[in-house]
Amino acid sequence: MMKSFILVIGLLTVFLGSCTRMPGIQSMKTMEELRLLEDSISIAARLLQNGETALERRKASQQIGVLLERALRTPGSWDYPFDSLPQISILMPDEKTFRLFSWQLYLDPDHYQHRAFLQLEKDPTMPITLRDRSDEFLRIESTIGSADQWYGAVYYNIRTCTNRKDTYWLLFGFDSHESSSKRKIVEVLRLEDDRTPVFGSPVFVYKDKEGRVTKEKSRILLDYAMGSHVRLNYDQHYDMILFDHLIPFADERNGLGLVNIPDGTYEGFTFDKGQWIHVNKIFDKIMNEAPVDFPVLDARKGKNIFGR
User: Fold this and answer.
1) SS3 labels along 3-59
2) How many structural domains comprise the chain?
3) C-alpha–C-alpha distance, residues 53 and 60, integer Å
4) Whose CB among 59, 107, 256, 275 lies 3.0–4.6 Å from 251's, allowing a Cys bridge?
5) Number of helices followed by number of strands (H, E) in the chain
6) Half-sphere exposure for 267 (CA within 13 Å, toward CB)
7) How many CA atoms lie within 13 A of 236 on its CB side?
8) What is the residue-level pLDDT of the chain in tens, covering all 308 positions?
9) 280 touches 267 (CB < 8 A)
């Protein structure tokens, strides 16, 4: 009887001991699974960047989407950094409400597509797919869309805006667009009921000299000539959004017609009671060099927007 009792106690001790170790084992298993998925995504991302044909690059982008969604749906993925994917932009606001994954697919010099996932802190294993509908936007700066009506871009900075109970985020992005011109954008993201993304909101306000509102925009878009260095970002020093003032230029040499180029002056927006008020001219003198921009892709040094 005593031997049987000791045997039962011994087995129970082993069982309880294994139970206390299970969370750690499970966590290690999850991290290993995520690491393997990240390795596979990395291989696809290199093909996305270096593939010789549009078909190869398209398949690579599709594979990234499948693998990344699988990774994000894995319990514990919220705490995984995904820090070995320089070709993919990963942004998170300071309050860690969500993570935004975005990347760009090059098809040919005049065709680019974008993919993105939004991972919410409140429901991290249910990532939201963003679908690039930029070709369908008739009024880019006034359209308000859903996750299925997203103006695609690769994002390089994020800014949280709070006024009383209202919170939204500014997403600063880049779109290679086409061979003759590139685009930079300030997107507005809101989360309805803390989980439904809405893109675009009329928070950019233009006023006349008497202070009357003359125009409102739901996002800001700069379309500029290829090869031009154009800035569009939030500047901590000036505590405002700064961007190059663009003027039309007849590019007769390349036969491109009218394109927009920076003239050396700067415009901006200042934050006031939940809105961004346009400032027509920031500096009294034309600057020889733009204010230093923020590094792209989570401050990973030595990498451009494509991870090169």
Assistant:
1) HHHHHHHHHHHHHHHHHHHHHHHHHHHHHHHHHHHHHHHHHHHHHHHHCCCHHHHHH
2) 2
3) 11
4) 256
5) 2, 15
6) 18
7) 7
8) 434 433 333 433 333 343 333 345 558 888 999 999 999 999 999 999 999 999 999 999 999 999 999 999 999 999 999 999 999 999 999 999 999 999 999 999 999 999 999 999 999 999 999 999 999 999 999 999 999 999 999 999 999 999 888 999 999 999 999 999 999 999 999 999 989 999 999 999 999 999 999 999 999 999 999 989 999 999 999 999 999 999 998 876 666 678 899 999 999 999 999 999 999 988 754 455 555 554 444 444 444 444 44
9) yes
Helix extents (H) in 185-252: none
Contact 204, 185 (CB under 8 A): no
Q: Do residues 171 and 123 both lie within one domain?
A: yes
Residue 91 domain flag = yes
Beta bridge pairs of residue 261: 247
3-state secondary structure of 146: coil
Residue 167: Cβ within 10 Å count: 16
Quickly count: other Cβ atoms within 10 Å of residue 281's Cβ: 10
What pTM was estimated for this model as a whole? 0.84
Tell which residue, 183, 121, 127, 178, has the closest CA to residue 151: 183
249: its two tokens: 């230029």
| Domain shared by 110 and 234, yes or no | yes
Tell me whether residue 38 is exposed, middle or buried, using C-beta atoms within 10 angstroms of its C-beta: 0 to 12, 13 to 18, 19 or more. Answer: buried
Task: Mark whether 130 and 47 lie in a shared domain.
Answer: no
Range of the domain at 132: 86-308
